[in-house]
Amino acid sequence: AAAAAPAEVPAAAAAVAAAQAEPPYTRPQREMGRPSASEEIEDLAAELDLAIPGLGEVATKAKVLHFPNSPEHVKQVLAWIAEHELAELEELAEVVENVTGFAGMPELPSKRFLRE
Predict the structure, then answer these.
(1) Are 30 and 84 in contact (CB under 8 A)?
(2) Distance between CA atoms of residues 110 and 84, nearest Å
(3) 94, 71 in Cβ contact below 8 A?
(4) What value, to the nearest 5°, has the Cα angle with vertex 92 and ends 96 and 102?
């Protein structure tokens, strides 16, 4: 006689079935191998904070990290900060127009950055 199938579905099979039933856009982006927009913004802000404490918060408030090319802008800003050996927000505030111009930031995000 054939053995009866177990009444319980193995946990791994149940997890696969649940993941397939769930629309992919509801799963966290990181789980799918890429960060969500908010996670990417947090990562960029953290990079800026490492260079100058508080810079990440300023950039987040100014909404300059919300654009598709923000990672490239951050890379350019960090390069400028390192080259000019800035260490404080006050120092950056004095030359922020130079930094945003060097980074190639569009005019509107640049203005918001200046305001913050």
Answers:
(1) no
(2) 19
(3) no
(4) 40
Report the amino acid identity of residue 49. Answer: D
> What's the pTM?
0.64
pLDDT score of 16? 57
Neighbours of 76 (CB within 10 A): 17
**Contact between residue 116 and residue 58 where contact means Cβ atoms under 8 Å apart:** yes
Residue 33, Ramachandran bin (φ over 0: left; ψ between -120 and 50: alpha; else beta): left
How far is the first Cα of the chain from the last one, in angstroms, to the nearest whole number?
77
Q: Say how far apart CA 66 and CA 17 lie, in whole Å.
A: 35
CB under 8 Å to 51, separation ≥6 — which residues?
Answer: 77, 78, 81, 82, 86
Residues of the chain with pLDDT under 50: 9, 22-27, 29-30
